Amino acid sequence: MPEKTARETTRKQDGSFAFRAKIGDYEVEIKGTHEEVIKTLDNLPDLVTNVHKAFEIVKPKTVATITVKTEPPAKQEQEAPSESYPRIRSAASSEEAVLRILETDWGKWRPRTMDELKEAMKANELKYSGRALTEGLDALADKGKLRRWNTTTGFVYILAEKKPHSVREESQ
Q1: Domains along the chain?
Q2: Residue pLDDT, tens place only, 67-86
Q3: So what's the pLDDT on residue 28?
């Protein structure tokens, strides 16, 4: 049931009297002499019901329901086609495999996450444990062969740019 509030205003100097009732979003005010307003208030239950019904007629009856059809999200676990990953020849270690993968256009295009590197290894039928891959990535980063930094999705890896060792190499 809607919220109901009622308030009686004070009598004015000229003898007029007002009563205001609020039902939900609607408000009704009764004005007149004190006696007229009191008589009307005796019929207040019927009056409020009638006013409420009158306002119900004014309210819009249509309710719009919108149904949006969405496609289920693509499963992350589905195996990506192997042609999206670079093809490399077999490697003797996880470090060598990572370097070969990151030397391809796929690896140079943007920094790659651990999961992307695992998938690239899987696409090349190279089986290194997550631990071996992590240790290889850490070793390559420590040697300065990879750049590594943390993002919101975890660490990303890319080949480090080669720096000349001396001034003489820069001029050549």
Answers
A1: 4-58 (no CATH), 83-171 (1.10.10.10)
A2: 666 676 665 555 444 458 88
A3: 72
Alpha carbon distance 21, 147 (integer Å): 73
- Strands across the sheet with 26-33, in order? 4-8, 16-23, 26-33
Contact between 29 and 19 (Cβ < 8 Å) = yes
Question: How is the chain split among helix, strand and coil, in percent rounded to 5?
Answer: 40, 20, 40
Decide if 158 contacts 146 (C-beta within 8 A): yes
**Residue ranges of the chain with pLDDT lower than 70?**
1-14, 26, 58-70, 72-83, 163-172
The helix (run of H) or strand (run of E) holding residue 44 is helix 44-58
What does each C-alpha distance from 8 to 31, 47, 51, 57, 83 come to in angstroms?
10, 16, 18, 27, 81
Q: What pLDDT is stored for residue 82 in this prediction?
A: 46
d(CA 127, CA 12): 93
Q: What is the residue-wise DSSP string for 109-123? A: HS-EEHHHHHHHHHH
